[in-house]
Description:
5-stranded parallel sheet, 51% helix, globular
Amino acid sequence: MTVRLVVVSGLPGAGKTSVAExxxxxxxxxxxxxxxxxxxxxxxxxxxxWQVGVAAYEAVRAMAEQNLRLDHDVVxxxxxxxxxxxxxWRTAASRTDACIEFVYLMxxxxxxxxxxxxxxxxxxxxxxxxxxxxxxxxxxxYAAWSDEVLEFDTAARTADEIADALTARxxxx
Length: 173
């Protein structure tokens, strides 16, 4: 049986962590979150910046590879807004012979997206919460996908409904 690496991507507030947690719980997969690792790195006193973001991606990649080699499916949640970020997961999959599935969550309703951000508190002291302006800037710079990607609109479907669709797809592969 081939192990799977499911990479749940999208802008902040799209629902990545919620969907990833549900999928991991339903499938018995390992869930790895970039934000949790970045929070830990920043809590050690390192200054915020792109280097910490890269370090978080690389740390999660290493943990994903370790778990994939142990025949554990892995679900990662990360913004994945650049080709370099996505290459991290392609590398992990190729080093472990894992099947990779990219998932992109988006919110078609801008007011709903802004509302979700305004009321959000994930308890991340060092990473913090992005503003609507931050998210709009990231959206403008979000790289187009060169991989096959499953796209879901979280304004139209709940996290449970998306997880249902993904778990059904994963069980047929």
